[in-house]
Design brief:
With 85 residues, the protein is an all-alpha fold. Helices cover 72% and strands 0% of the residues. The longest helix is centred in the middle third of the chain and has 22 residues.
Length: 85
């Protein structure tokens, strides 16, 4: 069984919720709806979108990159495939 940090998960889920509420980027909500339609649960969809968010956080921290909107959207569109750096 994988261990996880519930506070970190809650923070990532909050980012997902905020993006969907703001409609920025609109691809977050589109991806959420698409994955629900493919049979994933709401929690699993948030986890999948969270993976794409984590790639961005990782690249910002490790490589000192700016947020890469194009990569983020590409990773959203490719879900449930694992996001790429």
């Amino acid at each position: 069984m994988k261990k996880y940090n519930p506070r970190l998960q809650a923070a990532i889920f909050e980012v997902v919720d905020n993006q969907m509420s703001a409609g920025d980027p609109p691809e977050t909500k589109e991806t959420f709806e698409r994955l629900l339609g493919e049979g994933f649960s709401k929690e699993d969809v948030k986890k999948l979108i969270g993976q794409a968010i984590c790639v961005e956080i990782y690249c910002i921290g490790k490589y000192r990159e700016e947020f890469d909107r194009e990569r983020y959207i590409r990773n959203l569109r490719n879900l449930p495939k694992e996001p790429e750096e």
